[in-house]
Amino acid sequence: MHLVVEDFGVSLGKKSERLLIRQKGQVISETPFRDIEQITIASKGVSLSSDVIQECTEYGIQINFLSFSGKPYAKLASPNLTGTVETRRQQILAYLDERGVTLAKAFVDGKLKNQANVLKYFAKYRRTTDAARFSEISGLLGIIDRLRGELAALHAPAIEQIRGQILAIEGRAAQHYWEGLKLLLDGGIEFDGRERRGATDPVNSALNYGYGILYSQVWGAVTLAGLDPFAGFLHTDRPGKVSLVLDLIEEFRPVAVDRVVVAMINKGTKIEMEEDRLADETRRELGRRITERLNAEESYEGKKHKLKFIIQKQARSIATFLRGEGKYRPFSGSW
Asked: Which DSSP string corresponds to 88-123?
């Protein structure tokens, strides 16, 4: 269970082996620690005891903290959640050889393929009802597919020599992808394109909040796989920047968040704003739906798995690839 706390003023305490959430002195939920995988606190005024923190570390439960906009600002986890030294040693060395190039290309290829799958997923309902729009979307899909071909043709001995070209392809594909999603939003909601930091419009605010929840899930997976979250390949090094988390999250953004936000709007769920941020009720509903999506099953290596377990498996696959024990293939969601 991924527990998301979004109400102001609640407190988290421990009773025996259960997590108690209280509001105004009253217990509003009671959950055994053994049933919790992560706790995400996405509100101000939340308090938690040292007993809760200790119990969470013993059960391997990570505690994530998000701002109202979905920006992660802190994480609590046991210092024992590390893998082998060999994995981290190979991760650092891979920055200087072709392994870094292979991974960076795979992350972007997975992102482009899943962006195309999201467009196909929503466009299939328009094949007969809106042939003109379906044709427009099909044209954009053709461009994204050609860009995947350009990406595959890139080669270099180390990521530093090719990062700019990879990011240029990602940026061009993103332009066509967001253009496609704009065509698919049926809720009469204004969306002028993707904005990251400081967005105040409903669609970008909802996307940013959803990415914040996903970010915590991916960071946890990277840590559990024994990888260094700060040593990425596609994203550059910067103090405090978890570059590998930002790398891996790319192939999951479209399937875990974009699909949820577009579906909410197209089904008539209002994205309510309070001044320049998401309204509390919208944040609760979005958090519930993203968590539900992470628990939904997708095909992976011939079997059905929950999306959150696929994220974990992909992180482990990065570690396996870096140690020279297997290949890394980006995850491709269904449509």
From this structure: HHHHHHHTTSHHHHHHHHHHHHHHHHHHHHHHHHHH
Q: Are 244 and 222 in contact (CB under 8 A)?
A: yes
The C-alpha atoms of residue 262 and residue 314 are separated, in whole angstroms, by: 25
Residues of the chain with pLDDT under 70: 80-83, 187
Residue 173 corresponds to which amino acid? A
Among 153, 168, 151, 164, smallest CA distance to 113 is for 151
Record the pTM.
0.84
Q: What is the CB neighbour count within 10 angstroms for residue 214?
A: 23
CA distance 192 to 86: 46
What pLDDT score was predicted for residue 187? 62
Q: Which residues of 163-183 are buried (b: 16+ CB within 10 A; e: fewer)?
A: beebeebbebbbebbbbbbeb
The rounded distance, in Å, linking the Cα atoms of 262 and 182 is 9
Q: What's the order of all strands across the beta sheet hosting 62-66?
A: 2-5, 38-41, 62-66, 72-76
Contacts of 2 (CB under 8 A, 6+ apart): 37, 38, 39, 40, 217, 291, 294, 308
Tens of pLDDT along 230-253?
Answer: 999 999 999 889 999 999 999 999
What does the block give as tokens for 147? Answer: 């860009």
Q: Using the 8-state DSSP alphabet, how is residue 161 labeled?
A: G
3-state secondary structure of 163: helix
Alpha carbon 34 to chain centroid distance?
24
Residue 273 to residue 250: CA distance in whole angstroms = 27
Distance, CA of 143 to CA of 299 (rounded, Å): 26
Which residue bears the tokens 């992808």? 177
